[in-house]
Structure formats: structure tokens, C-alpha cells
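Following up on my earlier thread - several people asked me to post the actual chain instead of describing it. Fair enough. Here it is, all 163 residues.
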Amino acid sequence: MYIDKWWGDYFGSTEDSAVLLDYFAKDGAAEYPLSKIFSDFGLYEQIQWGDFRETEEIGFTDEDGRTHEIDMAMNLMMDLAAVTLESVCGGGVSLSELDENTLNPKRFVIQPDEDELDCLIETLLDFSENPEEYELADFCAPDDLREMAAQCKDLAYALKEAL
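Reply from S.P.:
Thanks for posting it. Predicted structure:
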């Protein structure tokens, strides 16, 4: 599985990752256009700016009307990129593969179009080249930030190959 290479240390391990997994768990869908995820989380404004270095107010509202906020857009983009790669190359992923503590066996796939994949790739590459300019830099040790940037670069190239 592709996700095994990425999911763990820097991908899938934040509070924002938990919000993303809640999003998939609360929704009954098995297929998600990436555009729907971008829309549901309110990411289009940041996408239009082409800048994920600082986070605007983003998150999703569940069917009960509760808002689940994302603290750092870059965390969300990194997680989406990893899950999207698994979806494109591996045919999908289950919640139990992403969260060993869940009993939810739901399997789903993210379906990106070429522009959306380009957005993920460009975001990952920008972070890999300028990690200290992202708000994540305020919360990471320099060595961790460099390693995270290197992994983002590798993931971006893996997504490019998937095109």
C-alpha cells in the first residue's frame, strides 16, 4: 500500500488529521471528488490565493450543524495528498488503515481531476522549498521541518508520476 510509506510521522498524525478522518467517518459516501472535499472544508479561497502558508478559517460542518475546524491548512493538504495518492494508485483506503483505533471498516476513494492534483503537487513543492515560511515552522523543530519538507517533495513527485 502506498499510504504505508507516508502515513505516520508527519502525515496523519495531527489534530487536523483527526478532523479529516471524522469527515470521512461521518459521511456515508464511498467516493469523494477532491473538489467536494475542497468545497466542504472551505479551501477554495486559499486555493485561489495559491497560498497555504497561513491558515484562514477552514473546516467542515457536519450534518448535526457542528463545525470541525482545521488549525493548519498545510496539515490538511499533506494528508489529502497522501490519501489521494493511495486512491489513485491503490484504488482506495479504509478508515481502519488510517486510524488503528477505529472500528469503522469504511473504505473510500478520493477522485481528483488533473487541476486538483496539480494544486496538491504545487502546494507540496512550495512547502518543500520554503518550509520556514509556513506557520508549521512555529510548531516544529528545525530537523523535523526539514524532514517533513523532504517527504512532501517525495510525495509531490509520486503524485506527478500518478498523473
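Residues 3-162 form one domain. That should answer part of your original question.
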